[in-house]
Write a structure and sequence with these properties.
heterodimer, A: 144 residues, alpha/beta, three-stranded mixed β-sheet, 6 helices, 36% helix, B: 318 residues, UDP-N-acetylmuramoyl-L-alanine:D-glutamate ligase, ten-stranded mixed β-sheet, four-stranded mixed β-sheet, 9 helices, 28% strand
Chain lengths: 144, 318
């Protein structure tokens, strides 16, 4: 089966100059954990997830910690989030984007989702323009 | 790619009742129990998107959605195979209630909510997204009422942007939004005269009034005007002539008129998009719209039935 046969045809996305605050609003309203970033021609140029934003609010030494108990308190994270909320998503997006083509096989999409541990994968047409996304649930629904 | 724009979509909540008890003598009798009900995504552009998708035509639905009802609209469209590209707003997508009383289904009772206001920031966000989509558009259908807070000039702006991008524009609206939209010389305009049969102060009650007004609109730059004159008949006006399109059914045979008008317009666009003649497009649209109205379901897109029913539609050049 091709990716186009299993994908969710949703084009929820944002531009790289959209603020983090607006991005959070879009993610929460649309109920999506991550969003592709597109240019003025709708070509996918990046990707940003809730995880990227949370990570941006954590102290730089977080990766070296074995437990979160060393993080002073949530107020600091909240303060940091407030600081970055007017910054553009461009500052925190993943530029090395992972996408799949609508003509690819579903197995290819499944492999990327599993290997990269991502909840959904942007799908592009032959021009690199966003045409949908493959969610984990799309794979499960079609396997059943 | 066909793009439909529904700036004020809705949830259509249809109730089928045996008898609508209103203004009865005792309080107890105000209770009306529904025999059955249906909840689905609605709004003119949304209905057209669903119809096109059922015909296997790829299309993208755009507009504003919000809250839990917004999720219902988006989910319904996706389940129908429509590509969704909505801007999320702070408000809640409206709900329209339709009551169909047994034996009087051809006179549906509509209670339409106005919808929640849309902010300037949300409009800006939409226009930016719309501009991106125009790169892929061959047709843009601007349909339905405008939400509160939106300038009546928006359809004109969106229509001009689409024309500049090389797309054919269709406007299905009423009032000031339509009047302003006509200034952008759309390819097709379908005045919605359910509430007020007037466009730009010109009455559209009789055939001759519709034809006169239509000719003026065509003279001012609109390609084709389609007006639902009676439930069973439409009038189309273009620079090449005037047509009366009639279906043989009696209006009393209709079971669910919700969205039938949108199906008609969707059918016309579908056929013109395929390169068919205007007469065939009108015949197809009327056949599809009539079958939808005859069916309990909101939108009927059975291509075999539509093509068969086309033979029963009469088109007369006036």
């Amino acid at each position: 089966m091709k990716v186009r046969d299993i994908m969710t045809k949703d084009l929820t996305s944002c531009e790289k100059d959209v603020s983090i605050r607006e991005l959070i609003f879009i993610m929460e309203s649309a109920g999506v954990p991550n969003i592709p970033i597109v240019d003025e021609e709708d070509k996918v140029i990046g990707f940003i997830s809730e995880k990227d934003i949370i990570r941006a609010c954590l102290p730089g030494y977080f990766d070296m910690l074995h437990t979160a108990s060393f993080i002073p308190d949530m107020n600091q994270i909240s303060k940091k989030l407030d600081q970055i909320s007017s910054e553009p998503v461009e500052n925190y997006m993943q530029g090395d984007m992972i996408v799949v083509s609508e003509d690819d096989d579903d197995l290819q999409a499944a492999e990327i989702i599993i290997r990269k541990n991502i909840k959904n994968l942007p799908v592009v047409d032959k021009y690199g323009r966003l045409v949908g996304k493959v969610r984990r649930i799309d794979l499960l629904r079609h396997l059943l | 790619m066909i793009i439909t724009v529904t700036l004020n979509p809705a949830i259509d909540k249809i109730y089928w009742v045996d008898q609508l008890k209103m203004a009865q003598e005792t309080q107890d009798e105000f209770l009306t129990r529904a025999r059955s009900s249906d909840t689905s995504a609605g709004g003119k552009g949304v209905n057209i998107s669903i119809f096109l998708s059922r015909l296997g035509v790829e299309n993208v639905a755009m507009g504003f959605v919000g809250g839990d009802m917004g999720h219902v609209v988006v989910r319904d469209l996706r389940d129908e195979g429509v590509t969704t590209n909505f801007v999320w707003t702070n408000g809640e997508t409206r709900t329209n209630v339709i009551v169909l009383e047994r034996g009087h289904e051809y006179v549906p009772i509509f209670i339409n909510e106005p919808g929640t206001p849309v902010s300037q920031e949300e409009i800006t966000r939409f226009i930016r997204r719309y501009k991106r989509m125009l790169n892929r558009a061959t047709w843009v259908i601007l349909a339905g009422s405008l939400p509160l807070g939106i300038d009546a000039d928006l359809y004109r702006v969106l229509a001009e942007m689409a024309t500049e991008a090389g797309a054919r524009v269709v406007i299905s609206a009423s009032g000031e939004a339509l009047s302003r939209g006509l200034l952008a010389s759309p390819y097709i305009a379908k005045p919605d005269i359910r509430e007020t049969p007037v466009v730009d102060g010109i009455p559209l009650r009789t055939s001759s009034e519709i034809i006169d007004a239509g000719k003026k609109m065509v003279g001012a730059g609109t390609g084709i005007i389609i007006v639902s004159h009676e439930v069973t008949g439409d009038i189309a006006i273009s620079a090449n002539g005037v047509w009366e399109i009639l279906t043989p059914e009696k209006s009393t045979e209709f079971k669910n008129l919700v969205g039938a008008d949108d199906v008609l317009l969707g059918g016309v666009v579908h056929m013109l998009n395929k390169g068919e003649t205007l007469e065939d497009a009108l015949r197809f649209g009327m056949a599809a719209g009539t079958l939808s109205a005859e069916s309990d379901k909101k939108i009927c897109a059975d291509i075999t039935k539509i093509e068969k029913h086309m033979e029963a539609i009469s088109i007369k050049k006036v």
